[in-house]
């Protein structure tokens, strides 16, 4: 019951945030909208017992990523308001078409009724999920998923190297 | 507290590549050596990786012979060491070697930043080879991203041309968009089956009959889209022409080739291993994508004025042809085609890099006028490679096309084959256009000096094109053995 | 308790909003946020599915996606900055030199 | 000896080849003599080979040379029988004389030896034709003589008219040959072979009347072309562009008679197709009178002879058409003699008048060149049909046979009779215009008698024209007996028996001849003004005749011009714009589509992502549609 | 032996490629010498070839078993003449290329590769192998036209390349399909002609496959209305190119029809007799009619090819002994005569740098030998008995009547038109008074040029008078083909279509 209420609230705020991201003309607003969504989603994680993930979500995303975003936004100018009028020909039409197509799709799926998100368990009752505590998650990460974990190292290296290569201008003959 | 199961051999090549990248970066920071030293490091790294891959092949075939399949699954089914993975990995490494050699002028021209570029190349190779080997879809996604992100950077690497960073941002935005779509597909497939591994999915569908497969189907669709983007199949191709044209010509060949190999390897593995029970459902869709790619690619390639855009669109068409092979349902045809095409593509771009400067963006067809006079080597090899891509006999390209078409036909997609052969005629037309410009339009501007590295690359590419065209058995047998687990 | 289907439906909605955002916004940064939005939707899906089927892998997967997202952010912002340096704009509509 | 009969063909052929390569070095007159010698040798061989026939012993035989086209039963094989013997002797005999004559006639021409190459080649081809043992080989000779005539008519190719005439001759002949070819198709399909020996025995049981008629008519088409009958005679007058000896040899004595020979050869088939025979006869008669009328008014000495030849060939067709094959062949032979003589004589005249051919510019040549005059006179009498010259006997036999045939043929008989009157007229007119009356030469021409090489053949031919007829008179039909084996088992048409009938008919024809000749003599004996008035008296007929009924113009307007227009239309208004246009159109289509699609790649990321997303939606929807 | 004849030119080409480019004077003689060697081999083959059905000198080397590919060559009565023809024409074509001054080396290389390809195509007994050669040939020919051609060479070569490639594309699809059917029926893939002939298929399928094959070959032939690439290609191609194009490449089409359509799809062939026959006859008449008014001598000859090859197609599908033999030998005949004609036109062009008929006139007076050869070849091509052209056409016409009387009759008019267009052209070019100065100055044939033409002339004569040198060796194979068709379809050739029906006159003569 509680879960339901929280879900509805957070769901709404998540959607609101998402819409802000898409519709706000000022990037700062969009950023804040995204922030809102992230938070609400984190809460939804908690609702689903993914405690650690929720924490990471807040720390990494809200903490690091969004800061970075805002930083860049400031860097390249807050005042840049984006005008609403569509400059691309047809773009509106296309978007409308796609959107309506999606709506129709969703409707069709729901109407057809032959749709379930998760396969119904054998005995019909959803098993009680284990808590996503640090221990269990960590164990999984460092045993089964260890290689993936190592692979993320590559990602971060690339991120670093790439960022430097792109944004950092050295003094040097080859590049001004 | 269980301990992780480690199989060093399974990841040895990637490990070496990562180490190599690290060494390059660190050495650079520490000693700022001459770039050619780094070049040697890279070379050693790549060849070592290739050697290890060969070792993997041997041991894999041993354990297959001894029927001990479990040895091929590593890291609790995260990645596999089956023939398919190894073959794909080898292909990636070969292409990387050729790519680095072909683009060497570019890397050298970067001066201090060359190190980062080289490191990124190595890391990209590592990422994609993980992708090819992955059994776990998230793992696959990681590999994909490792590769893609390095590519985003490489695309924007040259600061000379404003086109370069336009290419980068386009590639980046579209790429991450596609990745998101892909991973959402993964998520949906997981939701529908509780499986994150390809083999797991396969087994799952062996055991259960899915009553309402909608979620799974959407998942498949989204994954196809995500990978289709990577291999620049229409209508998910739009990034390709711009990126090919904008990115520095030194690396674009490598990027294109590697992305094709990895993308198609993953696509083939997923479709053939994970969702065989749905093939009647998705094969028509794949065939549809194939047709759109072939037609759109070749017709648009006809009207391009820039050889790199032309190659990009022809790449779209080729994606269509390879899709035909996927429809054919046999991996060997696809793998053979991939290797052949990738080699030819790198070779072709090596020529482009020489003709229109290694770090430039864009290369007008007009700059190829009279190339046969200015550099018979370049024009000659480019001719062979183009004819190879066009799929004329005694080139490997023909054998490749023949293979995939045969598979598709045998698999009941005759109409697809017919359309494919007809579009290959259009394709012929635009390849021939370039040959016309090189041989039949004269322009006596100065001769072009060809760097040795490029000479080697061209030699290799042409040799491969001809030899595998005349005696395909050597490669075809390997490809035939390299079936997914 | 709430049926996991609802969570996933919510995720789907977020995903679509993000996707459509890619189409309507021309500020590279905002488009990029849309992608983050989509990735979040993915995460939400994974977690809900994992919880529904009592499978931890869902949650674990989310970690890696987070990492990927972070890496993308770094590189992406770097690219955007680089472009801004050159043209002092972040509007992708002004980048259509390459076409045809 | 008969086994060596192939020598008859071989000798001239070899000599032709030799002359072709070395003639230049032999030069004049050696090349000519060698050539004449070759033909003479052929004549001798033929004579020796024919001796058994004269003795009445040997039967026909077929000598197989070598396989040619076995698949259609067509090999190179020689049919050696009385008919071919006659033809061989005529061809080689007359040929020899004409060769000799040519030596003198072509004196001083820088392509002297070339002419003899062609002439020998022609002789060889003609002999191939007459010796052929099957239709294919006959066709071989048939075409080769056509080829030679192309070469010879166009001998003076520098003259555009000559070149055109040569082409015309060949093409018009080809028209007939198409019919011939189709006829051979029918023959092959009915008999499964083209070999005479395989065809003629089995003809009665194999052929239906319809098929026989079809074959007959198609062969007739070929014959009509070669023998210059209506409607394909137009090439022959033009062919006079060639050197006169050529006209004598090819367009009078030998080649043009091939058609007659063909029909006589195929008698066994015509036997089964009376309708076809009748057609032959009618065409022959029509041609005879038609050409005769044209000949009346010609001024060019050779044109007269040309049309006269056409007319005489008409006679032969009439003969073979009324199944009087012997008569036909007989007339063929005699005609060969006197018409060759006439042409050579005309040649001698033209030679003397330094290439003047207009008879209005001649006259009074008798004193200048008596031999020519006398010999030509004999020929004129012969063709006019004055007894006892050759022409009389052969023509009379034809008339007799036709008369005897009765029925429709009676009409033909009457027309033929009129024709002989006209013949006598125009021949006499020609002779008188040329040799009598006051000279009307252009200044500068000083006529003189031709040298011996030219006159001797004239004399020889004159003798033949005089006596040649005696081989087959009603009183001594040795020629007929000689040929009988060839037409064994066929119903031959003969002149009526009995002296009275003969006298009556002969009287009629002689009367006609004398009348025609007399009128001509009387009217043209007088000065130019008067006979020109006489000619004007026949206007507008005379004019039409002089212009040969303007048939060429009609053909030109009716066939040539439209054909050319059609061809131009096909080439420039159909092939290029439409057929080829379609091809290029397809190519342009693809390029166009490409251009149209380029905007798809607008360069705007948001379009791209729209495309991507749209694609995604489509894929997903499609999957769901297929899957669920 | 057969492998050798293919490899010799290839190796030769590589060898020439290695000769330093600055030793120009070496290239051409070397090329000719190298092309003589295959001629020697071909001569030997011809000599040893036994007049029997079936393939001789067969070579069978597995190429890639899993796909059922094999390097299997062999020649029978239908292909042997083509091999010999190719071997004869290539040296002549090279000999005629003295005027090629730029990039001689490449030219030789391409020509030799072309030769190898043509040999392979004619000798292949494995469809995959055939296709490989069939397609490979396009490339060198494309370069020959495109690099050494006339003003519109690019357009022409492009058109040639793409048009013909389009045809072969469907051929490829069909071959793949056949192999697939073989796999599904016998379990193992195979491309061997003999194996594929045994594949059983429904009438509909057979028709489709037949259509694909026929289309590919019809474009090559070229059959109306697919002929328009030919005039362009010919007009632009250098002399050697034209010689080989008309002499050999076109024959790939007719050869393919005889070899593959008849033996692989007998039923469909029998059903298609009318369609292809009609197209062929249209081609005969149409090509001739269009040729008449062509202002360009080379284009004229090109259109005559359309007309003449119509005869071959007609003969092929008339399915009688006579017509099929005629078709095969006409392949050779047309190669010789048209090759020679293109050579002559090429020599004219070298002398006057124009091909427009209206630019000439009265040449016979200036260059009698030239005129002589030209006239000779013209009449050979018109079908003058005693020369080779007649043998083929006559066999075809007479033979075809049994099955397609109407078409045969119409075709007979093609012979008439041939006389019209050729003689008119000859009249305009060679007869009359040479009015133009440059014409009066024209040189007659040199000894070398005569040396090139004489062999052709001799062959023309020999084949005209004693065609049995070939017919003997052709007949068994054509008979076998017809037997195969009849056996496979129950179709019976109407008498007297087959040799058996021919009424043999009792051995007269001895």
Give the strand order, joined by hyphens, for the main sheet of chain B. Answer: 1-2
Q: Are there runs of chain B of 5+ residues with pLDDT below 50, and where?
A: none
Uncertain runs of chain E are none
SSE class of chain E? mainly alpha
**Strand order of the main beta sheet of chain E, please?**
1-2
Cα distance spanning the termini of chain B: 30 Å
Instruction: Note the quaternary state here.
Output: heteropentamer
What features would you describe in this structure?
- The complex is a heteropentamer of chains A (176), B (485), C (100), D (628) and E (510).
- Chain A is mostly helical and 176 residues long.
- In chain A, 69% of the residues lie in helices and 0% in strands.
- The longest helix of chain A is centred in the middle third of the chain and has 25 residues, at 51-75.
- Residues 171-176 of chain A have low confidence and may be disordered.
- Chain C has 100 residues and is mainly α.
- In chain C, 77% of the residues lie in helices and 0% in strands.
- Chain C has three helices and no strands.
- The mean pLDDT of chain C is 89.
- By secondary structure, chain D is mainly alpha-helical.
- In chain D, 74% of the residues lie in helices and 3% in strands.
- Chain D has 27 helices and four strands.
- In chain D, the strands form two sheets. In chain D, strands 1-2 form a two-stranded antiparallel sheet.
- In chain D, helix 15 runs antiparallel to helix 16.
- Chain D is globular, with a radius of gyration of 31 Å.
- Chain D starts with 5 loop residues before the first helix and ends with a helix.
- The model of chain D has no long low-confidence stretch (mean pLDDT 89).
- Chain E has 510 residues and is mainly alpha-helical.
- Chain E has a two-stranded antiparallel sheet with strand order 1-2.
- In chain E, strand 1 (56-64) and strand 2 form a beta hairpin.
- In chain E, helix 4 (104-123) runs antiparallel to helix 5 (127-136) and helix 6 runs antiparallel to helix 7.
- Chain E is globular, with a radius of gyration of 22 Å.
- The mean pLDDT of chain E is 90.
- Chains in contact: A-B, A-C, A-D, B-C, B-D, B-E, C-D, D-E.
- Chains A and C meet through helix 1, helix 2, helix 3, helix 4 and helix 5 of A and helix 1, helix 2 and helix 3 of C.
Task: Give a brief outline of the structure.
Chain A is an all-alpha fold and 176 residues long. Chain A has 6 helices and no strands.
Keywords:
heteropentamer; D: 628 residues; mainly alpha; two-stranded antiparallel sheet; two-stranded antiparallel ribbon; 27 helices; E: 510 residues; 2 strands; globular
Secondary structure topology:
The complex is a heteropentamer of chains A (176), B (485), C (100), D (628) and E (510).
Chain A: H1 2-23, H2 27-47, H3 51-75, H4 91-112, H5 134-142, H6 146-167
Helix pairs in contact in A: 1-2, 2-3
Chain C: H1 4-24, H2 28-52, H3 57-87
Helix pairs in contact in C: 1-2, 2-3
Chain D: H1 6-26, H2 30-55, E1 61-69, E2 74-80, H3 82-105, H4 112-131, H5 135-153, H6 160-191, H7 196-200, H8 203-206, H9 209-226, H10 235-238, H11 244-253, H12 258-265, H13 267-271, H14 274-296, H15 301-321, H16 325-352, H17 365-368, H18 370-384, H19 390-405, H20 408-435, H21 452-467, E3 472-473, E4 476-477, H22 478-483, H23 499-525, H24 528-536, H25 541-546, H26 551-597, H27 605-627
Antiparallel strand pairs in D: 1-2, 3-4
């Amino acid at each position: 019951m509680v879960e339901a209420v929280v879900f509805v609230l957070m769901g709404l705020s998540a959607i609101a945030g998402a819409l802000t991201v898409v519709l706000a003309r000022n990037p700062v607003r969009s950023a804040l909208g995204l922030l809102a969504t992230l938070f609400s989603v984190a809460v939804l994680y908690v609702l689903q017992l993914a405690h650690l993930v929720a924490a990471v979500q807040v720390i990494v995303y809200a903490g690091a990523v969004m800061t970075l975003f805002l930083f860049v936004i400031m860097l390249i100018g807050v005042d840049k308001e984006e005008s609403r009028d569509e400059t691309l020909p047809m773009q509106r039409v296309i978007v409308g078409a796609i959107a309506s197509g999606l709506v129709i799709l969703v409707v069709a799926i729901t109407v057809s009724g032959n749709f379930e998100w998760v396969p119904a368990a054998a005995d019909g009752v959803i098993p009680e999920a284990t808590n996503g505590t640090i221990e269990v998650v960590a164990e999984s990460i460092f045993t089964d998923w260890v290689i993936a974990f190592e692979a993320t190292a590559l990602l971060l290296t690339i991120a670093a190297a790439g960022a430097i290569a792109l944004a950092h201008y050295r003094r040097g003959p080859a590049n001004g | 507290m269980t301990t992780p199961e480690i199989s060093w051999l399974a990841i040895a090549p990637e490990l070496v590549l990562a180490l190599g990248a690290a060494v390059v970066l660190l050495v650079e920071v520490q000693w700022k050596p001459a770039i050619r030293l780094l070049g040697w490091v890279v070379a050693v790294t790549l060849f070592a990786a290739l050697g290890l891959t060969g070792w993997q092949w041997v041991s894999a075939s041993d354990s297959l012979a001894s029927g001990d399949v479990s040895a091929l699954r590593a890291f609790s089914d995260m990645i596999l060491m089956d023939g398919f993975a190894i073959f794909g990995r080898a292909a990636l490494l070969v292409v990387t070697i050729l790519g680095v050699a072909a683009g060497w002028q570019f890397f050298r021209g970067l001066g201090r930043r060359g190190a980062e570029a080289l490191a990124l190349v190595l890391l990209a190779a590592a990422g994609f080879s993980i992708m090819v080997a992955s059994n776990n879809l998230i793992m696959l996604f990681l590999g994909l991203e490792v590769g893609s992100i390095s590519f985003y950077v490489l695309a924007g690497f040259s600061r000379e041309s404003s086109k370069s960073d336009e290419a980068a941002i386009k590639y980046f935005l579209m790429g991450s968009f596609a990745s998101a779509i892909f991973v959402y597909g993964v998520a949906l497939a997981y939701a529908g089956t509780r499986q994150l591994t390809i083999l797991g999915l396969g087994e799952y569908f062996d055991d259960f009959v899915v009553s309402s497969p909608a979620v799974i189907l959407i998942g498949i669709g989204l994954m196809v889209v995500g990978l289709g983007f990577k291999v620049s199949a229409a209508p998910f191709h739009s990034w390709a022409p711009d990126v090919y044209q904008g990115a520095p010509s030194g690396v674009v060949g490598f990027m294109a080739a590697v992305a094709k190999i990895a993308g198609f390897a993953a696509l083939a593995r997923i479709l053939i291993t994970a969702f065989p029970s749905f093939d009647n459902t998705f094969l028509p869709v794949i065939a549809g994508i194939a047709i759109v790619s072939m037609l759109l690619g070749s017709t648009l390639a006809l009207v391009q004025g820039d050889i790199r855009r032309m190659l990009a669109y022809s790449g779209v068409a080729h994606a269509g042809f390879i899709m035909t092979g996927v429809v054919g349902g046999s991996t060997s045809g696809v793998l053979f085609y991939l290797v052949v095409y990738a080699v030819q593509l790198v070779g072709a771009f090596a020529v482009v890099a020489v003709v229109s400067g290694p770090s430039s963006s864009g290369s007008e067809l007009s700059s190829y006028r009279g190339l046969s006079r200015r550099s018979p080597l370049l024009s000659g090899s480019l001719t062979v490679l183009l004819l190879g891509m066009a799929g004329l006999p005694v080139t490997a390209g023909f054998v490749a096309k023949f293979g995939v078409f045969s598979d598709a036909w045998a698999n009941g997609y005759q109409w697809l084959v017919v359309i494919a052969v007809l579009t290959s005629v259009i394709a012929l037309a635009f390849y021939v256009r370039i040959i016309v410009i090189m041989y039949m339009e004269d322009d006596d501007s100065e001769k072009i000096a060809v760097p040795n590295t490029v000479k080697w690359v061209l030699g290799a590419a042409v040799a491969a094109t001809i030899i595998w065209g005349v005696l395909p058995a050597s490669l075809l047998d390997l490809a035939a053995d390299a079936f997914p687990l | 308790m709430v049926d996991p289907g609802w969570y996933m439906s919510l995720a789907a909605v977020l995903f679509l909003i993000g996707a459509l955002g890619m189409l309507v916004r021309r500020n590279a940064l905002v488009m990029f946020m849309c992608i983050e939005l989509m990735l979040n939707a993915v995460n939400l899906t994974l977690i809900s599915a994992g919880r529904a089927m009592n499978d931890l892998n869902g949650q674990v997967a989310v970690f890696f996606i987070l990492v990927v997202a972070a890496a993308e952010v770094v590189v992406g912002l770097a690219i955007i900055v680089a472009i801004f340096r050159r043209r002092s704009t972040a509007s992708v509509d002004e980048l259509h030199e390459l076409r045809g | 000896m008969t086994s060596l009969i192939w020598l008859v063909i071989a000798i001239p052929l070899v000599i032709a080849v030799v002359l072709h390569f070395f003639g230049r070095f032999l030069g004049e007159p050696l090349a000519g003599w060698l050539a004449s010698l070759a033909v003479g040798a052929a004549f001798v061989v033929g004579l020796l080979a024919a001796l058994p026939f004269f003795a009445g012993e040997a039967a026909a035989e077929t000598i197989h040379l070598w396989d040619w086209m076995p698949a259609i039963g067509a090999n190179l094989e020689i049919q050696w029988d009385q008919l071919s013997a006659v033809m061989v002797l005529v061809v080689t005999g007359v040929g020899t004389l004409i060769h000799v004559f040519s030596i003198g006639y072509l004196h001083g021409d820088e392509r002297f030896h070339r002419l003899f190459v062609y002439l020998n080649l022609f002789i060889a081809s003609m002999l191939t034709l007459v010796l052929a043992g099957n239709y294919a080989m006959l066709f071989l000779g048939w075409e080769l003589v056509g080829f030679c005539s192309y070469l010879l008519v166009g001998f003076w190719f520098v003259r555009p008219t000559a070149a055109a005439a040569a082409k015309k001759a060949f093409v018009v002949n080809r028209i007939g040959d198409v019919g011939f070819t189709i006829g051979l198709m029918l023959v092959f399909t009915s008999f499964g072979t083209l070999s005479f020996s395989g065809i003629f025995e089995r003809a009665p049981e194999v052929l239906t009347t319809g098929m026989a008629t079809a074959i007959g008519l198609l062969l007739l088409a070929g014959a009509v072309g070669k023998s210059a009958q209506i409607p394909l005679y137009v090439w022959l007058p033009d062919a006079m562009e060639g050197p006169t000896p050529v006209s004598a040899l090819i367009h009078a004595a030998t080649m043009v008679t091939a058609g007659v020979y063909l029909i006589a050869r195929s008698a066994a088939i015509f036997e089964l197709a009376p309708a076809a025979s009748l057609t032959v006869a009618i065409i022959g008669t029509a041609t005879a009178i038609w050409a005769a009328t044209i000949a009346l008014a010609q001024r060019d000495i050779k044109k007269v002879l040309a049309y006269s030849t056409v007319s005489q060939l008409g006679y032969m067709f009439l003969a073979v058409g009324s199944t009087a094959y012997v008569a036909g062949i007989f007339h063929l032979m005699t005609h060969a003699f006197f018409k060759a003589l006439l042409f050579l004589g005309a040649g001698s005249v033209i030679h003397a008048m330094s290439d003047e051919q207009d008879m209005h510019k001649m006259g009074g040549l008798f004193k200048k060149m008596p031999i020519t005059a006398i010999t030509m006179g004999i020929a004129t009498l012969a063709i006019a049909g004055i007894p006892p010259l050759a022409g009389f006997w052969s023509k009379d036999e034809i008339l007799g046979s036709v008369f005897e045939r009765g029925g429709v043929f009676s009409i033909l008989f009457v027309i033929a009779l009129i024709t002989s009157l006209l013949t006598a007229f125009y021949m006499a007119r020609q002779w008188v215009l040329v040799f009598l009356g006051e000279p009307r030469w252009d200044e500068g021409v000083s006529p003189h008698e031709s040298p011996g090489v030219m006159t001797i053949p004239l004399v020889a031919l004159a003798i033949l024209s005089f006596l040649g007829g005696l081989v087959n008179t009603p009183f001594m039909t040795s020629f007929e007996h000689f040929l009988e084996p060839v037409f064994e088992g066929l119903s031959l048409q003969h002149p009526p028996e009995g002296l009275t009938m003969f006298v009556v008919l002969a009287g009629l024809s002689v009367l006609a001849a004398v009348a025609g000749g007399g009128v001509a003599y009387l009217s043209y004996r007088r000065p130019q003004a008067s006979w020109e008035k006489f000619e004007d008296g026949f206007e507008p007929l005379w004019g039409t005749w002089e212009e040969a009924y303007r048939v060429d113009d009609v053909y030109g307007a009716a066939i040539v011009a439209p054909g050319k227009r059609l061809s131009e239309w096909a080439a420039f208004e159909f092939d290029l714009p439409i057929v080829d246009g379609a091809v290029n159109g397809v190519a342009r289509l693809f390029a166009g589509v490409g251009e149209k699609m380029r905007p798809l790649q607008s360069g705007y990321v948001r379009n791209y992502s729209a495309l991507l997303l749209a694609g995604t939606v489509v894929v997903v929807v499609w999957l769901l549609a297929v899957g669920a | 032996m057969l492998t050798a004849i293919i490899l010799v030119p290839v190796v030769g080409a590589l060898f020439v490629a290695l000769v330093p480019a600055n030793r120009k004077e070496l290239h051409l003689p070397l090329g000719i010498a190298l092309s003589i060697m295959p001629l020697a081999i071909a001569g030997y083959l011809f000599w040893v070839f036994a007049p029997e059905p079936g393939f001789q000198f067969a070579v069978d080397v597995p190429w890639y078993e899993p796909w059922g590919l094999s390097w299997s060559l062999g020649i029978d009565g239908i292909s042997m003449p083509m091999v010999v023809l190719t071997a004869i024409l290539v040296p002549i074509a090279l000999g005629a290329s003295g005027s090629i001054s730029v990039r001689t080396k490449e030219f030789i290389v391409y020509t030799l590769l072309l030769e190898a390809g043509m040999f392979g195509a004619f000798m292949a007994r494995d469809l995959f192998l055939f296709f490989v050669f069939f397609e490979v040939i396009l490339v060198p020919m494309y370069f020959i036209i495109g690099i050494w051609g006339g003003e519109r060479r690019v357009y022409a070569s492009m058109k040639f390349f793409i048009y013909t490639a389009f045809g072969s594309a469907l051929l490829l699809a069909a071959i793949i399909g056949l192999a697939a059917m073989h796999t599904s029926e016998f379990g193992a893939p195979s491309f061997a002609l003999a194996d594929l002939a045994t594949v059983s298929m429904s009438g509909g399928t057979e028709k489709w496959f037949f259509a694909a094959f026929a289309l590919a070959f019809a474009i090559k032939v070229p059959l109306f209305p697919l002929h328009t690439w030919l005039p362009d290609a010919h007009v632009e191609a250098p002399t050697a190119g034209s010689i080989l194009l008309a002499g050999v490449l076109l024959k790939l089409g007719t050869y393919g029809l005889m070899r593959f359509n008849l033996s692989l799809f007998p039923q469909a062939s029998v059903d298609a007799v009318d369609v292809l026959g009609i197209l062929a006859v249209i081609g005969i008449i149409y090509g001739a009619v269009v040729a008449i008014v062509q202002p360009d001598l080379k284009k004229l000859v090109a259109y005559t090819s359309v007309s003449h090859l119509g005869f071959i197609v007609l003969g092929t599908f008339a399915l009688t002994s006579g017509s099929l033999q005629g078709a095969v030998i006409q392949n050779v005949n047309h190669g010789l005569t048209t090759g020679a004609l293109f050579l002559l036109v090429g020599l004219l062009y070298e002398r006057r740098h124009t091909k427009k008929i209206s630019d000439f006139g009265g040449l016979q007076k200036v260059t009698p030998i030239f005129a002589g050869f030209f006239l000779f070849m013209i009449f050979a091509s018109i079908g003058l008995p005693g020369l080779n052209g007649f043998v083929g056409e006559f066999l075809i016409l007479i033979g075809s009547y049994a099955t397609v009387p109407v078409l045969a009759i119409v075709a007979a008019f093609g012979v008439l038109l041939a006389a019209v267009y050729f003689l008119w052209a000859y009249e305009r070019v060679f007869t009359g008074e040479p009015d133009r100065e440059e014409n009066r100055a024209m040189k007659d044939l040199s000894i070398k040029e005569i040396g090139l033409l004489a062999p052709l002339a001799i062959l023309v004569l020999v084949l005209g008078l004693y065609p049995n040198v070939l017919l003997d060796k052709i007949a068994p194979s054509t008979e076998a083909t017809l037997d195969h068709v009849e056996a496979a379809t129950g179709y019976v050739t109407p008498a007297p279509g087959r040799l058996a029906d021919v009424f043999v006159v009792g051995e007269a003569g001895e």
